[in-house]
Design brief:
Blueprint: E1 2-9, H1 14-28, E2 36-45, H2 49-59, E3 63-66, E4 80-83, H3 87-95, E5 101-104, H4 112-120, E6 124-127, H5 130-147, E7 151-153, H6 156-164, E8 174-181, H7 191-195, H8 199-203, H9 212-220, H10 222-235, E9 242-246, E10 252-258, E11 263-267, H11 273-281, H12 313-323, H13 327-343, H14 351-362, H15 371-390
Parallel strand pairs: 1-2, 1-5, 2-3, 3-4, 5-6, 6-7, 8-9
Antiparallel strand pairs: 8-10, 10-11
Helix pairs in contact: 3-4, 4-5, 5-10, 5-13, 9-13, 10-12, 13-14, 13-15, 14-15
């Protein structure tokens, strides 16, 4: 049996807790024949010291990282503790080794540097942080190739495409890929209704239970826009071969259309434990804790095109894919600032996409050859967008 050492970055968030649920389920099934046994080596969180401590105790983690210097931790004697802004990076540099699996589930651009450190250490990556590729795909994907490691996407849509693409021998056989979107809480709202939507309205997602930032992104379809850019980097496809479609049931997570007209789709209930387990176990498959599809209760699968007037984020994504360079970093950074401003009730809902568009209009596209280039564009976009919020 293979013993797989695992680090979870963002262990107290929705992806991290779901991943630990998968690990917990594997531990319970000790009597079953399985090819993998997971060992939680390290956990990282931003500030939730109580939950981080409880997780570390339950899974006997050797090390933990917490960004908040003041977070209170209650850990077993001998547990290595890393604190501060670079805590996750320091933990990986000190404790990770080649062949380990790192689940990268930190929220936002904060996940870029730790993911790069993990790659440099020779760790395989289960990527749940879409911002890493949106902002820094030009740096991350070459680093993956140089290190000779595996990167498997965790987002349900990209994981679906990853599975469906196993039927191909070359990306030249693929006509296009299509990511599905639930449509969020505003799928049936008019633009006028969206203009006066409250934070509570936007957080009321009909299908998924996620953190506030991702939930707001889903309401604006900015989440799907970010995923389109991520798909470009993951699969090497141009803007004309990547699309999105509304699918309210969230049962079909992605389509791959081949040149011969065949279309493959991946279906499963909206339970993030399914793609998380697939990414952690690939290429093997096992029973797990996620919900299973009940075909007897499946009455219909509905699809409709995205209304670009109400959800302009999709057009912005295609623009970013075409522009390349620093535009991804600007796109992501401006959105993070705009979403934070909306959650703070400083701007209206429709202003999120407007601020992102204005940032892309205002900032020239520059070449990206290093993480410093990404961080420079990120910082400038954040400052400019924050100034626009205050104006």
């Amino acid at each position: 049996m293979q013993r797989r050492r695992v680090f979870i970055l963002g262990s107290t968030g929705s992806i991290g807790t779901s991943a630990l649920d998968v690990v917990r389920d594997f531990a319970r099934r000790t009597g079953e024949a399985r090819g993998i046994q997971f060992e939680i080596v390290g956990l990282a969180a931003a500030r939730n010291g109580d939950l981080l401590s409880a997780q570390a105790r339950e899974f006997s983690a050797q090390c933990v990282a917490v960004v908040d210097d003041g977070a209170s931790l209650d850990l077993p004697s001998g547990t290595r503790v890393f604190r501060g802004r670079d805590a996750a990076c320091d933990m990986l540099a000190a404790c990770a080794r080649r062949g380990d699996l790192v689940l990268a589930a930190m929220v936002g651009a904060a996940g870029i540097r730790p993911t790069l450190v993990a790659i440099e250490q020779g760790c395989d990556i289960a990527l749940a942080n879409k911002e890493t590729l949106v902002a820094a795909g030009a740096v991350v994907m070459p680093a993956v190739a140089r290190a000779g490691i595996r990167l498997v996407p965790v987002d349900s849509e990209h994981n679906a495409l990853f599975q469906c693409l196993k039927a191909s021998t070359s990306m030249d056989e693929v006509r296009r890929v299509v990511l599905t979107a639930s449509g969020g809480p505003f799928r049936s709202r008019t633009r006028e209704e969206m203009a006066v939507a409250t934070v509570d309205d936007a957080l009321a997602h009909p299908t998924w239970r996620m953190g506030p930032k991702v939930t707001i992104d889903s309401a604006s379809l900015m989440n799907k826009a970010l995923e389109l850019v991520e798909a470009h980097w993951l699969f090497g496809l141009g803007s004309d071969r990547i699309d999105a479609i509304i699918h309210p049931q969230s049962i079909v997570h992605g389509f791959v259309e081949y040149l011969d007209g065949s279309v493959l789709a991946q279906l499963s209930p909206p339970d993030m434990r399914t793609p998380i387990q697939q990414a952690m176990c690939d290429p093997e498959r096992f029973d797990g804790p996620s919900r299973k599809l009940d075909f007897s209760a499946l009455r219909s699968l509905d699809f409709q095109p995205v209304d670009l007037q109400r959800f302009p984020a999709i057009q912005l994504a295609h623009r970013v894919i075409g522009a390349g360079g620093s535009s991804g970093a600007v796109f992501n950074a401006a959105n993070e600032v705009a979403v934070a401003a909306f959650l703070d009730r400083r701007i209206g809902f429709l202003e999120i996409a407007e601020l992102v568009r204005d940032a892309l209009d205002a900032m020239p596209v520059t070449a990206v050859g290093s993480l410093d280039d990404v961080l420079r564009a990120d910082g400038e976009a954040r400052a400019r967008t924050e100034a626009m919020v205050r104006a």
